[in-house]
Amino acid sequence: MQDLKVIVKVVSGCNLRCTYCYAGNYHSRLPYVMSREVLERLVRESLSIAPGRVEFCWHGGEPLLAGQEFFSEAISFQNQYKSPEHKIVNSLQTNGTLADEAWIEFLEENDFGTGVSIDGPAAMHNQQRPFISGAGSHEQTLQAIRLWQERNHSIPILCVVSSTTAKHPIELFEFFVGAGIRSMDFLPCSKINHSTGQLFDGGVSPQEYADFMVEVFDQWWQLDDPTIRIRYFENVLQGLLGGQPTLCKFAATCAQFLTVDTDGTVYPCDDFVGEDQFAFGNILETDLKIIDIIGNKDLLLLDSSGTRF
Asked: What is the three-class DSSP state of 198?
């Protein structure tokens, strides 16, 4: 394996209670931060199995709950175990509510590519992404985006499309453009609630999501502004024009992706975290190189719907 993308579940916990959060078990316990032992082994073994480009995607829960010391230690381990041939990339996805000037400066100084999750105007966002108290989080999230923009950075955003917001594609797109956002992506709410085993009430059908994306595409195309980027559309166009898409769903392979949960359990990707039947092993018990070999064999047994034969 030359390149590797590792999605790291830094914290099992969050300060929000998003209505569609698939990690329902986060809601029943205090946040738990990945241990130093798991962090070091994760970094060391990831670099040992991929001699080329290694991207660490720091996720949660809410990863900023881990504190700056955690990420400073991660960088220290990367510097300790990397070789001259390695290209290490760090990216982080946050809800933005904890991102103050100090955090933004830390992330910039250490070259973390950062994205913020926001679900549109205040009414839509607050309905789907409240704090634990039930209060809306839109003001704090938008303030974080503005702090980045004041530093001349166009922060990319992720918007989850629910059955409610799918009815307002033009309003969502115009809100993001009006807020000065130049890089965005729209993810369908199609996860299963691990607490109930059922699809979320706000989930969108394939047809609803397709209709939404067609409307957004038409608005984006008509605007004809090359500074406004939508990752999903760029990947589709890259594939149609003979290029190599970057999103795993278009790349025709899962082999270069791994997800490591807070306790060190390894899964094929973020979609299967918490589902024991898809766990490849734990890096505290088995070398990641062995897990990766087992995982690649198991991926051959997955059909396109994610069902193991």
From this structure: strand
The three-class DSSP label of residue 183 is: strand
Return the CA Rg of the chain: 19
Q: 265-267 and 257-260: which strand pairing?
A: antiparallel
Q: Dump pLDDT digits (tens) for 176-188.
A: 999 999 999 999 9
C-beta separation of 187 from 159 below 8 A: yes
Q: What is the pLDDT of residues 98-151, one digit of tens each?
A: 999 999 999 999 999 999 999 999 999 999 999 999 999 999 999 999 999 999
Residues annotated catalytic, as ranges: 270
